[in-house]
From TrEMBL:
GO cellular component, one term: proteasome complex
Pfam name, any one: PAC4
UniProt GO BP: proteasome assembly
Originating species: Octopus vulgaris
Signal sequence segment: none
InterPro entries xrefs: PAC4
Protein name: Proteasome assembly chaperone 4-like
Length: 85
């Protein structure tokens, strides 16, 4: 999943649930231009919700004001179109 304010791939993270730790999926930054990225936390939330491996890319920082709205919209889309997730 990608979201951001400009069409570029600047940060990418992956997260997946393991059988050893059920509280929070493991997440890893695959590529980054800045240390302040919301890719890992969002990938972990999506992996926990879907039970699948999730890749997230974003060029927004974690303090961006739109982050809560973006997360809310993603979860709305998941409810409306579960077959796409």
């Amino acid at each position: 999943m990608w979201f951001g304010s400009s069409p570029r791939l600047s940060n990418m993270a992956v997260a997946m649930q393991t059988k050893y730790d059920t509280s929070m999926p493991n997440g890893c930054q695959l590529m980054t231009e800045s240390a302040d990225s919301l890719s890992i936390p969002l990938a972990q939330k999506l992996a926990k919700k879907t039970g699948k491996q999730v890749f997230v890319s974003s060029d927004l920082s974690s303090d961006h004001k739109m982050v809560p709205l973006i997360e809310q919209r993603i979860f709305e889309e998941m409810k409306l179109y579960p077959e796409k997730f």
